[in-house]
TrEMBL record:
<feature type="transmembrane region" description="Helical">
    <location>
        <begin position="239"/>
        <end position="256"/>
    </location>
</feature>
<keyword id="KW-1003">Cell membrane</keyword>
<comment type="similarity">
    <text>Belongs to the CitM (TC 2.A.11) transporter family.</text>
</comment>
<feature type="transmembrane region" description="Helical">
    <location>
        <begin position="303"/>
        <end position="327"/>
    </location>
</feature>
<feature type="transmembrane region" description="Helical">
    <location>
        <begin position="268"/>
        <end position="297"/>
    </location>
</feature>
<feature type="transmembrane region" description="Helical">
    <location>
        <begin position="29"/>
        <end position="49"/>
    </location>
</feature>
<feature type="transmembrane region" description="Helical">
    <location>
        <begin position="339"/>
        <end position="365"/>
    </location>
</feature>
<dbReference type="GO" id="GO:0005886">
    <property type="term" value="C:plasma membrane"/>
</dbReference>
<keyword id="KW-0472">Membrane</keyword>
<feature type="domain" description="Citrate transporter-like">
    <location>
        <begin position="20"/>
        <end position="350"/>
    </location>
</feature>
<keyword id="KW-1133">Transmembrane helix</keyword>
<dbReference type="InterPro" id="IPR004680">
    <property type="entry name" value="Cit_transptr-like_dom"/>
</dbReference>
<dbReference type="Pfam" id="PF03600">
    <property type="entry name" value="CitMHS"/>
</dbReference>
<feature type="transmembrane region" description="Helical">
    <location>
        <begin position="385"/>
        <end position="413"/>
    </location>
</feature>
<dbReference type="InterPro" id="IPR000802">
    <property type="entry name" value="Arsenical_pump_ArsB"/>
</dbReference>
<dbReference type="GO" id="GO:0015105">
    <property type="term" value="F:arsenite transmembrane transporter activity"/>
</dbReference>
<feature type="transmembrane region" description="Helical">
    <location>
        <begin position="133"/>
        <end position="150"/>
    </location>
</feature>
Amino acid sequence: MEFIALVIAIFTYLMIALRSITKIPPWASMFFGGVLMIVTGVISVDQAYSSINLDVIIFLITIFTFSSALEISGFLRYLAYKLVTKYRQPRKIIFFILLYSGLLSNLVTNDGVASSWTPVMLEASKAMNMDELPFLYTLAFGVTIGSVMMPTGNPQNLLILLEAHVPFLLFIGILIVPTFVNLILSYLVIVFLFKDKLKNVVIDDIEPVEIKDRRLAYLSLILLIITVLLFLALSALRIDIVLGSLVTSSLLLFMSKERRNIIQRIDWSTILFFIGLFIFTEGLFQGGVINLLYSFIPPPTNVLTIMVSSIALSQVLSNVPLVAIYIPEMQQLGVASIINWLALAAGSTIAGNFTILGAASNVIISEASEIRGGKSFNFFEFMKYATPVLLVNFTVLYLFISLAGTALIQLLAASH
């Protein structure tokens, strides 16, 4: 079975990497790869069903419901209009996309911002008569970098908070400074990488944009704020945060007259990608491919090896399944310290700044753009732009966690 699983894995990743030639989107390749794991006997149907994490699937559907409603109401287009008219210069817009998306990702998770802001990027680039790729890449990097600093920034951070019992304030206290440093340094890298695309941009006289359906916009925003508050409250009470978004999104559909339109505009292709990913990952485990990879990757025993291995394995497993595996493994190895948990959170998150498969938010942005007639991410082009950003992020986070983080925890321990 190991040989079959390995062949399926290579085939699936080749289809994703060669997307520009095959024209097959990543979600279709990943879903097909998952199905192949079943029909070839690598895993059973029951194993495939049990591998699907319904918490993640339902969470994405509920967050996408808000994104869809905000887009239909015209609020996202209005937001793009305000962004362009306020800052006007491409480099300024790039900076504030990076900053705003990074900060917002901690309130509605990186996947939520990726989904809701992609239409904003397309509208902004259209208004400025420029290529949308610099904006899309900035959004992808922004939500990844920004979501490092809080447990609510992404699902893997939340998993570490709940399962490893890392104090909420300590999590933020150690990771907030390197996050802001990375946002600033990454801005400089992005401007350098896209310097040719940011030149000679002419901003047309932009026709004023108004919110089309104010009732739907206000209803969505109010319920979204309530969702964020519920996330914070439920995580503090150690209750599944999905309950919060499930309640508020169902209220949105119950109260809105545009409920059918909202459901139809949800990014269902990304949902299929995740379903396929969970089944595909289970096939990698049962087929022995993961054990094979472990022989090439150092065990997670210190900050450096945890960050390196989590970045590498996240490209194969995606970051949420990777963290779910590493938590019990690190506990078994006896390296379950706060510093190492923060290294796992940082490494598994910035893994998104390596390949398109390193974070679900990358896939969400690419698919959401293509659905709306924009460009999608090319596998190798993404690596070309993302690798310099990753190297900067890794260096800053490693130094802060291993040096400043350790010193801070020792200081706190001494004070007690």
